[in-house]
Design a protein that fits this description.
Shape: globular
Helix content: 40-55%
Number of strands: 8
Order of helices and strands: HEHEHHEHEHEHEHEHEHHH
Radius of gyration: 20 Å
Structural class: alpha/beta
Strand content: 5-15%
Number of helices: 12
Largest sheet: 8 strands, parallel, barrel
Distance between the termini: 37 Å
Length: about 290
């Protein structure tokens, strides 16, 4: 399916209403698992990509080329809409415009941009800071103007809750909506009342809430968040954290004893090949095999 069609379907799905559960994928394999389980979309997580690709914390180490490469890889294995975490756009408004064009070509259905300074850091880390509102708004306007397909959505995130307070974060989100953002994302609200107040204050524009296991925002079920009025419920790094735990358990067991064939906490060899669609490539190999003579 063409990316234009995927983005158009995603935009229509959001317009229908009802909360959409959006798991994060740090790589294409995780995206395959998400698609295989029947989710409606996938989120390319900057934190997860930094952790898995570089083995480093989410403190601004990933660059645009690396995000574009992984966006393209995920688009190559799934027709699900991809919401791409583009950090703070890697500079000023001109850099943001370039970021949007690159990621749109790579296969993004929606591009998330935030108002942090450079270097940015995880929304649930201490020590964050945001740029002045005028600069943040210029980033969003540039992003809106830069997209080539009107169906490519711009997600405007603010981290001002941690630095300027809850009301300032709501005010920033409202300003981003005026600048053309399709979805807004107030990062790291700290109480149930704060979470509930976001869609109430920003009615008429889809809202994203990010639930981080071990983070600042209280964890709630999908039904509750749907009733509050959220359109996207993001679990950016459940896949990553579960994979990390699984590796620790399996390798810890391997260290203690020799692991016999598929007797540990591992997927089977056959399941691993199914998940990377080996049968499809076997069929292609047969189809294009060279004949004698």
């Amino acid at each position: 399916m063409l990316n234009h069609e995927i983005s158009k379907s995603f935009k229509q799905r959001l317009a229908q209403g009802g909360a959409m559960l959006l798991p994060g994928a740090p790589n294409a394999l995780a995206a395959r698992v998400i698609a295989d389980l029947g989710f409606e979309g996938v989120y390319l997580t900057g934190a997860g990509l930094t952790n898995t690709y570089l083995g480093m914390p989410d403190m601004g180490f990933i660059n645009l080329s690396e995000i574009a490469q992984h966006t393209s890889a995920i688009r190559g294995v799934t027709d699900l809409p991809i919401v791409v975490d583009a950090d703070n756009g890697f500079g000023n408004a001109l850099n943001v415009a370039h970021t949007v064009r690159v990621l749109e070509r790579a296969g993004a259905s929606a591009i998330q941009l935030e108002d942090q300074v450079t270097p940015k850091r995880c929304g649930h880390f201490a020590g964050k800071d945001v740029v002045p509102l005028a600069e943040a708004r210029s980033r969003i306007r540039a992003a809106v103007d830069a997209r080539q397909d009107e169906n490519t959505l711009i997600v405007a995130r603010t981290d001002a809750r941690a630095t300027e307070g809850y009301q300032a974060a709501l005010d920033r989100a409202a300003a981003f909506i005026e600048d053309g953002a399709d979805i807004t994302f107030v990062e790291a609200p700290k109480t149930l009342d704060e979470v509930q107040g976001i869609p109430q204050a920003l009615k008429g524009t889809p809202q994203l809430v990010n639930l981080v296991v071990g983070g600042h925002t209280p964890i709630m079920d999908l039904k509750t968040l749907d009733e509050m009025g959220f359109s996207l419920v993001l679990y950016a790094n459940v896949a990553l954290q579960s994979a990390l735990h699984g590796m620790q358990v399996a390798l810890g067991q391997l260290k203690e004893k020799t692991m016999l064939d598929e007797d540990g906490p591992v997927a089977s060899f056959a399941e691993r090949q199914r998940m990377v669609n080996k049968a499809h490539f076997d069929e292609m190999e047969k189809r294009y095999a060279l004949s004698e003579g």
